TrEMBL record, chain A:
UniProt xrefs under InterPro entries: Metalloprtase-TldD/E_C, Metalloprtase-TldD/E_cen_dom, Metalloprtase-TldD/E_N, Peptidase_U62_metallo, TldD, TldD/PmbA_N, TldD/PmbA_sf
GO cellular component annotations of the record: cytosol
Lineage: Archaea, Methanobacteriati, Methanobacteriota, Thermococci, Thermococcales
Domain (Metalloprotease TldD/E C-terminal): residue spans on this chain: 231-446
Protein name as annotated: Zinc-dependent protease, TldD/PmbA family 2
Automatic annotation (TrEMBL), chain B:
Organism expressing this protein natively: Thermococcus cleftensis (strain DSM 27260 / KACC 17922 / CL1)
Gene Ontology BP terms: proteolysis
Keywords attached to this entry: Hydrolase, Protease
Protein name according to UniProt: Zinc-dependent protease, TldD/PmbA family 1
Pfam families given in the database record: PmbA_TldD_1st (PF01523), PmbA_TldD_2nd (PF19290), PmbA_TldD_3rd (PF19289)
Top-level division of the source organism's lineage: Archaea
Domain Metalloprotease TldD/E N-terminal positions: 22-82
Ranges of residues in domain Metalloprotease TldD/E central: 115-207
Length: 472, 440
């Protein structure tokens, strides 16, 4: 706290009109097993301070991991100098929206504190995946399993009176499985289970069950998989597929910094324009929410990195674009209040507009009701390859586990059904949404240098009518 | 910093660790980001840290120490020791390289002018103005300057130092919503830095890309701009690591000695490339970096290795440690003998792709992937270029390598957000590339 106060005061003395100092400390361990061999232990202990300032309408940022007064003072001096020089290459000064600020402290509790658990016990979680996968009898010659835990401590102080102290533990298990049967190979890569909280969340989630399900589904795909139907057919997507679709084609294009072109160079622009608020983008059953406050979620936070209180953000309500994701800079441009989307992955990164936990809100259909009147369709359960253009309009998702739907019933697995579609067509095709919401973790990439932030993606099942399905 | 390294090594040896590697870093990095023809933020990073690798009876661990007091160092080593004692050994661990080694300076990797550069904003303005003069309306991008010092000490007699600098720019220019172009320039010494060329290329392509029409789908001969092909080779570089292959992330698994590319394809990793953005004198075990041929005239010759993985497979290290995961330094696709004009005249009807992003794999072991062209895309017909949009490359990485028909004679060194491992590549002509598009 002392060093943060020192940094903010120093910045104001040097001429900043706004100053924000953020201390972050991350401690944790990670372990990997590759094809049965423990790959070693990695211990993370990182901390430092980042300072962001506005001077004459220019923005500067500097960070250091040397926490002496001299070093912090030097960082502040550099941030101010950079901001002042940057202000000369601007058409309009940067301004921030007015907000209510708080002095708060919050933390996520761990029932089973991972700091009290030895690495060998954590390794047992991965060994359990090895054993359970082996017990299926499926031939999985390549297995890469990783466990990771981190305790994130953060303190933010701004010259406008925000002070937020937080402590968020995060645990995750990730695996890559390559199934080789009958001379064919299928893969479930980078599958992750992840939460904010203690080790009990991983134990309760039983990642080995997910791995077993994947290994068995891939084996079945190899032996029983047939070509998927092609052409305009109905497609039912799982919460996992709905999750990647809302993340890519709703969350990203609604980021205000993209909409205004700040991300144009690397992570891209957006097909969405400021005047599209209130415009229809999907059918009436489509509502998409981004909510950082979901307890134990991978994208959890209660205050963003500009000190603004978080709340659920309704990006699409009943098919209508209702809200963009904003930080203070872009809330000001829109004449709004910030909805607390400013996140930085570490002390050495600037806060930028990010998602947290984005999901397709539930409707009122059971899964059986979703498929019962589908004459010919596909149920896409999980995906591997996916991508989207930099305006977030032309996208593609390829099924990993997927099944034929015929006359209202699930039939045999189908290989690599491909949905390649525009954003507007995708969300306009949805005619029914399931009742149950599920979430899947991911790392959302954006920023330069890159900032991979933890997010959840998910939602309910959804039925898409007459979408163009292709096959390889 | 070497005194600190020595202290860590001494304490680690006192505690009974076997192999120990101490990599100290002092880095100063500066960034200027710009968009809409103005600077959005300018940043400065200063960092001092030690990466530490330790081995205890075939158990291995690593950590990064950023609080470099003697108390914290001792505490960290004791924590590692306590945690490692109960762990299962890594049975396929075979040690680190035996030093000492002799090192040679790599030309054009350090320039005091970059260290002393007070204000890089002029370069940003040059790039923006050049792009605008080519017809762009909006220009966005990022400029970096780097100054890195690396201090390496190992329990096997290595003490090595390297100091490097760099300056680079990435420029994206827009005419309208759908018309854009991209140019980059990366150099290790100031006199080689050319922000104007990056701005010019971005502006030229954006201007050429005006009023694009929906592109076709099917199989086409495709000319990949160096920026676009560097993306594919950068993804491939990860797959050349023996670690990635063991973990199931490589289409090169079980293909040593086999033909995996067209006969005109030779791909190398060059750790000691003059003016290479990834060049360094030594790898993380202290082995002097070198040139390693990965694919020679289409045949896959070797994975990239560190000492432990090399011993596991009965061969020599390729000087690509990464103690846990070997990695490439600078990937080089050897150029061919076509001028750019000759290359384009080879294509009667095809597509010119200037940039790609969002490369994702359906299956890493088979190599099936897709990637999205961004910025200008052009249909080539009878020597003319017509702008198109909204297509996707959907193919297989090995098939792309096998389909390489001709290579330009000029090599371009590419490093940016989408190409994290630097790549030197010419213009590349690939036949029968799979192209798809959304139909709704």
């Amino acid at each position: 706290m002392d060093v943060l106060e020192f940094a903010v005061e120093k910045a104001l003395e040097l001429g900043a009109s706004y100053a924000e100092a953020r201390f972050e400390e991350k401690n944790g361990t990670s372990l990997a097993i590759k094809n049965g061999n423990p790959e070693g232990l990695q211990v993370l202990a990182d901390r430092g301070i980042g300072v962001r300032v506005l001077v004459d309408g220019g923005m500067g940022f500097a960070s250091t991991n040397v926490l002496t007064r001299e070093s912090v003072s030097e960082a502040v001096r550099k941030a101010v100098k950079l901001a002042r020089a940057a202000s000369k290459v601007r058409n309009k000064p940067i301004r921030f929206s007015d907000e209510d600020f708080h002095r708060v402290s919050y933390k996520v509790k761990m029932k089973k504190d991972f700091r009290d658990v030895s690495p060998e016990e954590k390794l047992e979680l991965l060994k359990k995946i090895e054993e359970e996968v082996k017990a299926t009898g499926v031939n999985v010659p390549m297995r890469y399993l990783m466990y990771s835990d981190q305790l994130w401590k953060k303190e933010i102080l701004t010259s406008e009176g925000a002070y937020v102290k937080s402590k968020i533990p995060r645990v995750s298990v990730t695996y890559n499985l390559v199934v080789f049967e009958n001379g064919q190979m299928e893969q479930a890569p980078f599958v992750q289970r992840a939460f904010s909280g203690g080790l009990e969340l991983i134990e309760r989630d039983e990642p080995w069950k997910w791995a077993v399900k994947d290994a068995q589904a891939l084996k079945r795909l190899i032996y029983e998989g047939k070509r998927p139907p092609e052409g305009k057919i109905d497609l039912v997507i799982s919460p996992e597929v709905a999750g990647i679709a809302v993340h890519e084609s709703v969350g990203h294009p609604y980021e205000a910094d993209r909409i205004f072109g700040r991300e144009a160079a690397q992570a891209g622009e957006s097909f969405v324009k400021p005047n599209m608020l209130g415009e229809r983008i999907g059918s009436e059953v489509v509502t998409v929410i981004d909510d950082p406050t979901i307890p134990n979620s991978w994208g959890f936070y209660l205050y963003d990195d500009e000190g603004v209180k978080a709340r659920p953000r309704y990006l699409i309500r009943d098919g209508i674009i209702t809200e963009f994701l904003t930080n203070r800079e872009y809330a000001y441009k829109l004449g709004q209040r910030s909805n607390a989307s400013a996140r930085a992955i570490n002390y050495n990164r600037e806060p930028i507009v990010r998602m947290a936990n984005t999901y397709l809100a539930p409707g009122d259909y059971s899964f059986e009701e979703l498929i019962e009147d589908v004459k010919l369709g596909v149920y896409m359960v999980s995906f591997n390859e996916w991508n989207i253009d930099d305006r977030r309009y032309q996208q593609r998702y390829i099924g990993r586990e997927a099944y034929l739907i015929e006359n209202g019933e699930l039939k045999h697995p189908v290989r690599r059904p491909i949905l390649e579609i525009t954003t507007r067509a995708l969300w306009s095709s949805v005619d029914a949404v399931g009742k149950e919401v599920e979430f899947y973790p991911g790392t959302c990439g954006k920023g330069e240098p890159g900032q991979g932030v933890p997010v959840w993606m998910g939602g309910a099942h959804a039925r898409l009518r007459e979408v163009p399905l292709r096959r390889p | 910093m070497f005194e600190l390294n020595e202290f860590i090594l001494k304490k680690a040896e006192e505690l009974g660790f076997g192999d120990v590697v101490v990599l100290g870093y002092e880095t100063d990095r500066r960034q200027v980001r710009f968009a809409n023809n103005e600077i959005t933020v300018a940043k400065n990073w200063h960092e001092r840290k030690v990466e530490l690798f330790v081995e205890l009876e075939k158990r291995i661990a690593s950590t990064t120490i950023t609080e470099l007091s003697e108390e914290n160092i001792e505490r960290t080593l004791k924590t590692l020791l306590a945690n490692m004692k109960g762990m299962a050994p890594k049975e396929d661990y075979y040690g680190i390289a035996e030093g000492p080694f002799e090192y040679r300076n790599i030309p054009e990797t350090f320039d005091r002018a970059i260290v002393e550069l007070d204000e890089p904003n002029d370069y940003v303005e040059t790039a923006i103005n050049t792009a605008l003069s080519e017809g762009a309306k909006r220009v966005a991008g990022v400029l970096y300057t780097d100054h890195d010092r690396v201090y390496l000490t190992t329990s096997n007699g290595v003490e090595a130092f390297d100091e490097g600098t760099g300056i680079e720019i990435s420029v994206r220019a827009f005419v309208g919503d759908l018309e854009s172009g991209h140019g980059t320039n990366s150099a290790r010494v100031l006199k080689r830095f050319d922000p104007e060329s990056a701005g010019r290329k971005a502006g030229e392509i954006a201007h050429m890309a005006r009023d694009p029409v929906q592109g076709p789908e099917g199989r086409f001969d495709v000319i990949f701009d160096p920026l676009a092909f560097a993306n594919l080779l950068s993804y491939m570089s990860f797959m050349t690591s023996a670690y990635a292959a063991e973990a199931g992330f490589s289409f090169l698994v079980n293909k040593l000695g086999q033909k995996v590319a067209s006969e005109i394809v030779t791909i190398k990793d060059v750790g000691n490339m003059p003016n290479g953005y990834g060049s360094r004198k030594f790898d993380d075990e202290g082995v002097p970096t070198r040139e390693t041929t990965i694919i020679e005239k289409g045949t896959f010759k070797t994975f990239l290795l560190n000492t432990s993985l090399a011993r596991k497979y009965g061969t020599e290290t390729t000087a690509n440690a990464g103690l846990i995961m070997p990695h490439a330094w600078n990937i080089v696709l050897e150029p061919g003998d076509y001028s750019k004009a000759e290359l384009f005249s080879e294509v009667k009807r095809g597509i010119y792709i200037t940039n790609v992003w969002y490369t994702r794999f359906q299956n890493y072991v088979t190599g099936d992937f897709s990637t999205i062209p961004r910025d200008g895309i052009f249909l080539i017909e009878n020597g003319e270029l017509r702008p198109i949009r909204n297509i996707r490359v959907s193919d297989n990485l090995q098939r792309i390598l096998e389909g390489i028909k001709a290579l330009g004679k000029e090599s371009h060194h590419i490093h940016w957000w989408e190409v994290s491992t630097p790549v030197s590549t010419p213009y590349v002509l690939v036949e029968d590339v799979g192209i798809t598009r959304a139909t709704k």
